[in-house]
Amino acid sequence: MSNSSLNIDTLSREINLLSLSDKMNRGGYGDLFYDHLTGLTKFKMLSSENNIDELKLSEKTYFGLEQYAIEHSENVESEKSQNEVDWDLIDDAKELLKIKLANSLGIGQNYESSELKPIIKFTTDNYENYLLYKMLYPDSISNPWLPTHNIILENGYLLMVSGQKDFIREYDKKILDKEDENSTGLFVLAKSNSTRGFSGFPIDTRSNMQGLIFDFLRRDASGMRNAIKTEKIASFLKTQQKNYSEQNIRVMFLLPLKRAGLIGSTTSGYFFINSPDDLIHSYKHHREKLRGLQRTLDMYKNKGKQLGIDLETV
Amino acid sequence: MSERNTLIDDKSYTNLEIGAGCGDFGKKFYPKCYLTDYDANLRESCELCHIDWFCDAHELPWGDNRFDTIILCNPYNYGFNDDDSTDKLMKELLRVLKVTNSKIILISTKNNKHCNPQRVSTRISAFCKKNNISNMNVSSEEIDCNSLYENYVFKEVLGDQIFPSCKITIDVQ
Ligand SMILES: C[S@@+](CC[C@H](N)C(=O)[O-])C[C@H]1O[C@@H](n2cnc3c(N)ncnc32)[C@H](O)[C@@H]1O
């Protein structure tokens, strides 16, 4: 979508289509929230003054990462944006979203005094960040608010990040019970249409761990020839007094780093992308995997035909 | 007012900086300036912490009608993002600002949603309208912070350097 398609008509259309989810489970927002966090942290990871492993996640640093992504966007995008931001359009879209959410939750006129005001405000502020970044980089796939945009507008959840336990307790004290030694002290609170109220989870330290591993690969596995296996990453983490299974290391740290385009992988392991050759190699490796998947899908489609099912339409 | 108020109140100090972080902008460019920030952790996290008083921008410990100038550099997560936040901040700033001939100076990058010049102007107009205020004027200029504030390092929340490009002045006549 180019910047010109960001106008009040297209935005009000997407807002009008929003329908709050009936589900409460984490599936609609959990992984996407962590993608958002990795997306934000990426700007800091790629900074020359990277000290991400020392960055303790808190309310202040969460908003700091938000500011960082806007102010240091050139760490991720190829150049600094020359685009002008349409602040009035952002204001109008935020207002439309606020009204839509308040009406969907049945608090239309009582918004100002509602206990839901903070979560609605966080949600509309988050949408504002998405629009701001999109106006700066209309075609970027690194907009760190793309995943939260999906949470809100496609999956139909309101969301909020808070470090205030008293505040969280008022909405759903069960969220606090889920805290463990890997928690940061920050929480995600989500709200769907469900009458059962709120859901959420303590945010764990995975973005710090991703930063730590990214730095380790940059130092010790620079370039595909130096690729290392998960086993070695697990040993490194042990030296840092951090114990994770290889499976968790892959799912929680390496895959998100790969999805964010930060590291490469081949059959011989994971590596820091250091040269055009590294990138080409990793790209080809994944393209092959995709072709393999495509072949499997084609086989299923074929089988479907034999059974009289058109899998294209399911 | 609370006892905090009596702690630092040398009347010859007529300037006040809010959200100063690890910097000392106010002391350098507006001498006789008190520096404040709400984050008490700055005592440990700054190499050299210059803060005179830790307080929230919306709850300043000084009495009414007290300062000539209030300075905010790169406010983030407070400021002029929407009408509510503007209302909350401006009410407190106007309380401690001298009733006439005083000003608020904002130094900002242009994509800071809490302090973009066009935003500040729109929010202040709405604020004045709502509160029947007619003696306030907003002006802004593009600046080259390197030449205007030579050798001064502005920082974003996480501590890396940023280069503000706008100076906004809210005059109270
Ligand atoms: C982006 S930093 C700017 C620091 C410094 N002014 C500069 O430009 O280098 C924003 C500062 O505002 C402070 N801050 C955020 N919210 C505040 C509030 N409600 N009251 C006072 N200070 C606040 C933060 O602690 C942080 O130090």
Automatic annotation (TrEMBL), chain A:
This is Uncharacterized protein. It comes from the Bacteria. It comes from Arcicella aurantiaca.
UniProtKB/TrEMBL annotation, chain B:
GO terms for molecular function: S-adenosylmethionine-dependent methyltransferase activity. It comes from Arcicella aurantiaca. InterPro entries: Methyltransf_11, SAM-dependent_MTases_sf. This is Methyltransferase type 11 domain-containing protein. It comes from the Bacteria. It holds the Pfam family Methyltransf_11. Residues 16-98 form the Methyltransferase type domain.
